[in-house]
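@channel sequence for tomorrow's demo:
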Amino acid sequence: MIEPVSLTDDVVLRLATEQDPEALHVAYVRNRDHLTPWEPRRPEEFFTVEGQATRLKGLLEQQAGGQAAAWVLADGDRVVGRMTLADIVRGPFLNAHLGYWIDFGYLGRGLATKAVREVCRIADEELGLHRVAAATLVHNEASQSVLRKCGFELFGTAPRYLEIDGRWQDHRQYQLILNDRPAY
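C-alpha cells (generated this afternoon):
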C-alpha cells in the first residue's frame, strides 16, 4: 500500500481517490491559464466535476490494473498539484511515463522536486520499476530543472512528439534508471 507522504508542513502527496473530482475540478479551473501552454487542449467538459470524475474513474481503473499510479498534492482539502505514472509496462521493460504539474500559487517552493523524488522512490521500491521516463517541451526550463535535480538524464529530442496547446511540439526526452535488478 502506497502511504501519503508529507512534502512540507502543509502539503501532502497522496494517491488520488474517487472522492477527488470536486477538488480536481476547482484546481483545474484555478490553474487553467497557468496550464494551457503546457498541456493538450481540453474540452470544456474537462473543467467540470463530471469531467474530472470520468477522467479519475479511468485513471483509478488503470491503477487497479497496475498500468498507472495517480497522486494529488493536497493542502488540506485543496488539490495543488498532480503526479502520474502512466503507461506502466511490466516484463523486461519495467517502465513508466511521469507527468506532473504544480498549482501556480505554490510554485517556487520545491514541491515538484520533492514530489518527483518521492514518486520515483515509490516507482523503485514499491512498484519495482527499472526506469521512469519524462518528456518536456523544449522551452520548459523549469520542468527540465526539476528532472535534472532528481537525477534524470536527457537522452534525446522527439520532433512533434505531443500535441500541446493545439500544436504538435518537440519534446526533450529524459529518463531515470532506478535499479538494475532482473525483471524476472
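heads up for whoever presents: The two ends are 22 Å apart (CA to CA).
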